[in-house]
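Sanity check

After download, print the first record. It should look like this:
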Amino acid sequence: MEKDQIKRLLESVKEREIPVDEALKALRHLPYEDMGFAHIDHHRSLRQGVPEAVFAEGKTVEQVTAIVKGMLKAGSRILITRANDKHFKSVKKIAPSAIHNKDARTIVIGSEKTKKTKGMVLVLSAGTSDIPVAAEAAVTAEFLGSSVETMYDVGVAGIHRLLDKRDKLFAARVLIVVAGMDGALPSVVGGIVDKPVIAVPTSIGYGASFSGISALLAMLNSCASGIAVVNIDNGFGAGCLAHKINMLGE
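Expected structure tokens:
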């Protein structure tokens, strides 16, 4: 349930002279929708500040479509992650406004309703191969309402590519830095800026990268202080965190 729906509900609550704070407290614990194979949490936006997202990977087309129907009925904006062409084709039939970002593997419905922040989230990728994860982070933060810019393929193997765009680094309120291989880029960025840096390791790399574990450990051991690290390939989690930090400055 989105905030505008909550406001309409509160108007009716006010007529009964129930304190708004008590009504909000009650709304935080309203039940979910039980679909048998899924439990849709319609009130997550109220509790956490971000709505529930649909993780499509591992779900059938029919399951994803049914969940989307339930969320649309509740008036929710919808973000579907790890979606493929089959998911999009089915969702498009019930939500003509749905937008599929193939790079990010996302489907977005209702993002035009969000008001964008003054503060900017900057998403960087070390290499072109890291773009799917970086794009997922960018789509997520933008869906939630953050103003987002991207800088792709600016890894440490050609550090001049990053340093040539220092002004953009300094202009960001939050930075998401996505890297595979040796995972070095977040440390470099963290040593340049005075803003929060969220590091995202990817599973990109040759054998000894161990599907992202090397990058993850490098980021956890960064000598640049104050870097937050999310799970391997977790662009969605990085986008959510960046947006929440960004909102603190609004």
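If your output differs, re-run the checksum step. Summary of this record's structure: Residues 108 and 114 are 12 Å apart (CA to CA).
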